[in-house]
Write a structure and sequence with these properties.
It contains four helices and no strands. With 91 residues, the protein is mostly helical. The longest helix has 26 residues, at 31-56.
Length: 91
């Protein structure tokens, strides 16, 4: 979690009550790390929900093309590389 590179300052506003809860619960020296971890967790949750939506929106397979074939095709469309390159059969 987080990078080992240099940190950057960020400015944003939060509700006064939320700020007070943060100050009461987290020592000053740990607040940046706490907020960074909370943001990372929220971003992971957003990505998980987006992936769930992607899976929910996949077409229902009723004969013909398999779901695996559909996903390969979509991957190729999004990536732009030929399928044999994506599958590691060709460089």
């Amino acid at each position: 979690m987080g990078s080992l590179g240099p940190k950057e300052r960020a400015t944003f506003s939060i509700d006064a009550e939320t700020k007070q809860k943060l100050e009461d619960a987290v020592p000053k020296s740990k607040r940046s790390q706490y907020v960074e971890q909370a943001i990372e967790a929220a971003l992971r949750e957003d990505a998980r929900k987006a992936f769930g939506k992607f899976l929910d929106d996949l077409p229902k397979v009723e004969g013909g093309e398999s779901l695996t074939d559909y996903i390969r095709q979509r991957r190729m469309e999004l990536d732009g590389r030929p399928l044999d390159v994506l599958e590691g059969r060709k460089q």
